[in-house]
Each structure stands twice: as C-alpha cells, then as structure tokens.
Amino acid sequence: MRSTFHGLETARRSLFTQTAALYTTGHNIANANTTGYSRQIVNMTAAQSMEAYGLIRSTVPGQMGSGVEFTSITRVREKFLDDQYRNENKSFGDYSIRQDTLEKLETIVNEPSESGVRTVIANFFNAWSELSKSPENADGRKIVREQALALTDALNHTAKQLSDLKNDLTENVDIRAGEINSRLQGIAQLNRSIAKLEGLGDNANDLRDQRDQLADELSKMINITVTEQSDGYKIDMGGTELVAGFDEPAPVTGDMLTDAVASGDLNSGEVYGMILSRDTYVQGYINDLDRLANTLANGDIEVTLPKGSVIPEGTTLTNADGSTTLYTGSVAGRTLTDDTKVVLKGLNALHQLGYNTSSTPTGLPFFTNADGSTGTITAASITLNKQIADNPTKISASMRVNDDGTLIEGNNSLSVLFSQARDLRFNFGSAGDPNLNTVDAYFRSIAGQLGVQSEEAIRQMNNSKGLVDQIDGRRQSVSGVSLDEEMSNMIKFQHAYNAAARNMTMIDEMLDKVINGMGVVGR
User: What is the per-residue pLDDT across 382-422, written as a single tens digit (0 to 9) for each?
Assistant: First the structure.
C-alpha cells in the first residue's frame, strides 16, 4: 500500500535532481569561454515505482510513481569530430610552419629589390664595364674592388642569414620536443587520475576535457593516432608508441623526431614542417647560393679570347672541343692568331689570363675562400683575393703585352671580357648533368622558385585552416556552451525546482491536517 510520506519522498527526489541540473547549468555557464570545455548534461530518469509486478503485491490498481532521479552527469562530445579535427590539424601545423619559413626566406633573398644580390651582381659587372673605358685608371680598379667586396659581402650576409634560420629551426625542433614531452606526461597523468575517479563510479568529465585538449594541442605538433583503451588514451605517432595508459611515456628528443621523419613515422605537423623546411627549403637555398658563388669563381664558362691576346707562360687552356693546349715560349709563340673559344674555370681562371702592371705579373685568382684557398668556394666563405683587396692595382685589365713582355698601356681586352661575362652561360650543373645559365638568370630562377613555393604554401595553409575551422565549428555546435540555451535550461530547471518545493509544502500541509487535526473532535 501507499506510504503516508510517499509524496514527501517524491518531492525530495525532484528537488535534489533539479538542484543537480541547476548546478550543472551554472558549471556550463562558468566555463563558456574555457578552451576545450565540453558542455555537460544531467541525465534524468523516472525513479523506480513503489511496487514492482509480482505475485505478492497490493490489490490497488496501477503503480505509484516515486518521482525522478539523475543517473549521471555526462559531457556532450563526438569522437568522430575529434578524430577529424586532429587529422586536419596536423596538416595545418605543417603548412603554417612551411609558410612562415618561406616568408622568412623571401625576406632574406629580398628579390626583386634595389639592394638584393642581383643588384650587386649587376653593379660588379658594370664596374668592369667602366674600367674597360679607362683601363689604365687607378680609380676604375678601386671601383671594381669595392663592387667585388660588396658582392662577396652580400653573399656572405645572405649565407649567414640562411645559416641562422637553419639553426633556429633546429632549436625550435628541440623546443617542440620538450613541449611534446610535457603534453605526453600530462596525458599519462590524466589517464591515471581518470581511472581512479571513474573506478568509484563517477564520470571524470572535466579531466577528460583536459586530456582531449592536450591531445588536440599534440595533434598540431605531430601526426598522432588516439585510441581509447580501458586504462586510458594510447597515443601513437605512425608506428611509434608515445604513451599508453598508466605507463610513463618515453622521452622525445629532437634527434628522435628527425629520425622519425626519415623512417616515415613523422609525416605531418609543426615539427615535420620545421624539419622539412630546414632540410629541404633552407638547406636547398644554401646549396643554391653556394653553387652560385663557386660557379662564379670556378665554374666552367666558354669564352672567346680575342685575336692578339698573349697567354701567360705555362698556361694550359681547354679548347671548346675538349682538347688542351699548353702555351709556353716567347711572346709571339703565346699570342693568339685568331679568336679562340676556350672553356675556363670561372672568373678566377679568366683573371689569371691577364696582366696588371707595367712589370707584367700575371693575374691572380680573383675570388678565394676566407682562408685564401681557391678550392670549392661557398657563399659563406667567398671573398675578394686579399692581395687584390689590399692593392687594387693587381686587378688585371689587359691581355696584351709588347714583345719584351711589358704591358701595353690602355689595352682593355680582359676588362671587356669581364664586363661581357654577365651574358655568358656558366655551367651551374656538372659535366654529366650541365645547367648552362647566366649568373643573373640563375639567381632569378632561385628567386622565382622561392616565390612559387611560398605561394603554394600559403594556398595549402589557407585550405588546411579552412578545414580545421569548419570541423572545429561543427565540434563547437555539438560540445560548445550556448549561453542562450543554458539560460533557457536554467529557467526550466528553476521552475521545476519551485514547483517541487511547492508540492512539498502542499504535502506538508496535508500531513499537518492529518496528524494534528484528526481525532480531536469532541475533546
């Protein structure tokens, strides 16, 4: 049969349930701007009836309801959208780093501009052109020296900027490794904390939000796969396990991440973008600039030596057909009787074919490394030959001497060849894979390639960002807190609470009448 106080119990359960709903609504409102927070809901269900169906039961028809209970408080979250978000977030992290690196490279290369490498290259050849007008003029040689120093300084400075950018990327990989370790440690700790709480029957909603937020941040840095197991999240990077359940994660280092790129385990995310930018983009442009410097100084170049040129004693020249000729003996024996095509080893070999003073010493190598060597020259080490830098009169402008070996004053044959070298095609490749191009065209191709790569990175980054924003918008529509919705819920739960309270007051009045008002007639 029905209990006398059944109505009070029903009202009490309603009060407790609506209170939980109001508190949860307040919690949602408080965290409306908390990153990674998922709105929470109170799951209500009708309480078990007073009498269940059975052989021994009251004969009163129907079952008497006993109010409402809440079975759990759960967060609203959709795993499918989480997986989609993390899958797109890694691509956005990758392309954002590429775009940033290429933007910095564009600033370093600084083309087209009036102060870039192309300008100093043009000024260098212009200085030779001016010297050819007055080859006996000391001022012309000083201008050539200054423009040569400006060219080598520009190459040195650009190479240093590229090297600094490469070092910055390497340092950033190590910094990201530390951030990855921090997040993996956090996920492992949350795995343990969530298991302890949920082992008691509770839902660790806020801790799960924190763990998902760490996984989201991790997904931008590296490509990860998140698998939920009985003991918590298992995080993998390709075939490499980073954290699993309660186990302490293995430390991640910059070298380990670099090796992961080589093995294919790391193939997206910010760290991948850094390593790719460092080893492909930045190192590629360092190699291009080194090739430019070395080719300018020592690269194969086909030059037509004018008739009447006197080849320095003991010089061996490679003819256009690949044969070689040794020039030795008297001045007459070393004088070219016709225009002759030869293949020289860059501007160094060309300068060594000339004469520079009345005492007619032969020309020096024009460019050297910083240590004075003339082997393979890099953009970081190229410099004007110290002897020429200290004494510009050692700049050769002539290829003609008198029969007694004295310099023919006013001859400009070598300076003319230098000024024409801007239009000559150097071999920027190798003997088996030639890449014939002028110095200016080669550098233009470097700048052009950079522009195309940068434009492509911007396009890819914008596309990835659009996808990430779209998926995140869908996630927020499911998991995000809507203040309008929460206010509506708050009013709804408040009215339900007030009604339950009024119901309890009504039952209290009824019981008061029964207890205190019945059985007193006739007293």
Answer: 999 999 999 998 999 999 888 877 778 788 999 999 999 99
Instruction: Name the token pair of 41.
Output: 């809901």
Asked if residues 222 and 271 have their Cβ atoms less than 8 Å apart, the reply is: yes
Q: Distance between CA atoms of 397 and 418, rounded to whole angstroms?
A: 9
Residue 43 has a pLDDT of 95
**Taking every pair of C-alpha atoms in the chain, what is the biggest distance, in angstroms?**
160
Residue type at 431? A
The C-alpha atoms of residue 65 and residue 200 are separated, in whole angstroms, by 29
d(CA 127, CA 385): 17
Distance between CA atoms of 143 and 488, rounded to whole angstroms?
81
**Residue 494, both tokens:** 């408040």
- State the average pLDDT for the chain: 91
Q: What is the distance between the alpha carbons of residues 109 and 454, in angstroms, rounded to a whole number?
A: 13
CA 19 to centroid of chain Cα atoms:
50
Residue type, 380: A
Burial 289-317 (b: 16+ CB within 10 A, else e): bbbbbbbbbbbbbebebbeebbbbeeeeb
Distance (Å) of CA 309 to CA 139, 282, 305, 336, 402: 25, 44, 7, 6, 11
Angstrom distance (rounded) from CA 60 to CA 354: 125
For residue 312, whether the previous peptide bond is cis, meaning omega lies within 30 degrees of 0, is no
Distance, CA of 282 to CA of 105 (rounded, Å): 8
Q: For the residues of 18-70, what is the DSSP string, one character each?
A: HHHHHHHHHHHHHTTT-TT---EEEEEEEPPPSS-SSSS--SSSS-----EEE
Which pLDDT does position 250 carry in this prediction?
87
Residue 344 contacts residue 351 (beta carbons within 8 Å): no
Residue with tokens 């949860």: 24
Q: What is the pLDDT of residue 202?
A: 85
Look up residue 265 and give its DSSP letter. S
Is 256:177 a contact under the CB 8 Å cutoff? yes
The answer to which of 209-213, 315-319, 471-475, 514-518 has the lowest mean pLDDT is 514-518
Position of tokens 């940068």? 454
pTM above the 0.70 mark? yes
Three-state secondary structure call for residue 362 = strand
Strand order of the β-sheet with 240-244 is 225-229, 232-237, 240-244
Contacts 24+ apart (CB under 8 A), 274-281: 274/97, 274/101, 274/169, 274/172, 274/173, 274/176, 275/169, 275/173, 276/94, 276/98, 277/97, 277/98, 277/101, 277/102, 277/169, 278/166, 278/169, 278/170, 278/173, 281/98, 281/101, 281/102, 281/105, 281/453
What is the CB neighbour count within 10 angstroms for residue 236? 16
pLDDT tens-digit map of 2-50: 566 788 889 999 999 999 999 999 999 999 999 999 999 999 999 887 6
